[in-house]
Amino acid sequence: MPSARQEGAGERATAFSLRTDLPRRWLLAGLCCCGLLNALSLRVQPVGWTLGQGLAPESALETSALVSLGMRRLAADLGLVRMLIYYGGPEGGPEEEEAQLHSRYHPEHPELAWGGGRYSGLGTRALRILDADPSFSYAALFAAGSLAFNLNRPEDALRVLDYALSRDPRNPQFQAYVAAVGFHRHGDAAGVISRLEPVLGTPDCPVMIKHLVAYLYVKAGQRQKALALYLQIRDTSKDAGYRRMAEVALERLEGRRPH
Amino acid sequence: MRNIAILALTGWQENLRRRFYLLSLAFAGVFLYLSLILGVLAVEQENRVLLDFGLGFIELMGLAGALYGATTIVLREMETKTVYLVLTRPVGRGEYILGRFLGLMLSVLASMALMSAFHLCILWAKGWRGPEPYAAAFLGAYLKVLVTAALTTFLAIFSSSALTAGVISGVAWTLGHFLPEIRYLITHGASRVSIVPLFALSYIVPDLQLFNLRDRLAATSPLAASEAGLAWWVGYAVLYTAVWLALAWGLLRRKEF
After folding, report:
1. Backbone phi, then psi, for A35, in 5-degree steps?
2. A46 domain residue, yes or no
3. For residue A134, which residues of chain B lie inside 8 Å, CB to CB?
4. What is the pLDDT of residue A55?
5. Domain extent for A166
6. A230 and A177 share a domain?
7. What was the ipTM of the complex prediction?
């Protein structure tokens, strides 16, 4: 009658013999096949983009985990959510937000409540998103548009667009934005309109840009175009804030609300 | 061939009766519903977030099911001696491995397809009619799971331990997604000492990033130009799977029951 110890030793021996039973030449041939396949895959898919920016301290773990699980696009999506929260909130915390609301917010001119501040991390956040997903044009367009037209920092906007173009040179929207920022720097509203008009119908065009162009239409006296664009924003935008602003602008243009 | 088909179908039926798959489907439903909240936070990019979150989650649930199945099916049948019932009949060991593996992958495919149907319903309800080729992204996710499951089957028989096989497969999954970074480290910056293991790894670990077709969904993506087509991805997956299943068969054919 074998003891429990002897049985355990027997099991270990079986397991060991099982491992060594695989002929080495089989294993070698298998590994060679894997190596060959990977060598071919390297030819098909060369080394991708490198990370130009370091990971942000607040999201380093989350981004690494998502990338290691093969979810680069989701990492970029969460980066966008973080960027929207960052840009949508006050720079100095809740106290500043309350002060801003009381001193600057006006229901008929909500655009005055934003556009201020520095938001120095906005550009870097956009670059990090592009690192994770070079084809995520919305993030680059949103950040560049905010930097150029809201925060009045065209140099930073151009930096974001250059980075985006280096990773996705075939994207015509980036080129149009570069030109529009250039016109904006020289105070040429007509130039900005002409460059941004072609990209308004693209699915990645941020509603902020549509709102800006509609506003420029009003300033340039192109009332019909402004009406059409404000109507489009009101009816299709998923952003409740912009829908409300478009509604107010429409009421003004139609004379239902005093200027 | 008939034996393989019978083993695959019975394996599929057994897997579908297990609670694990039901649990994974229920969990996927709840999680996909939660993704709606995340979608709201992305405002204008809601559909993109829903698409990415759903596809990623479906892939992970498919992987979990495949790992669980690959690490337990053969080992459990050895422990419960059920394997005797099969192998005492005119069934080859290669047929047994292949039949069980195909049964498992059929179960995973059914599970992933069901989750995808639910995911598409959510996307459709949210107004998504997107240009992204959903089917290609789904196929890529399935091929990743297929390759990893084959590796896990080999590891389970090799190590005789479900836990060891599962852990090593999990590591292979993450390394497979980091392969572009590993290759970059080899060509730039890594010291000579650290290159050797990295170099070896880069040729053994499955190139899972190759199958990440959802990363290249955008038409203007700079990586889209390097795609060699569906045939190459499927070919890579089938060959890689065949290699590890052949090694698993090599182990099993020498085992004395």
Report:
1. -60, -40
2. no
3. 221-223
4. 77
5. 61-205
6. no
7. 0.82
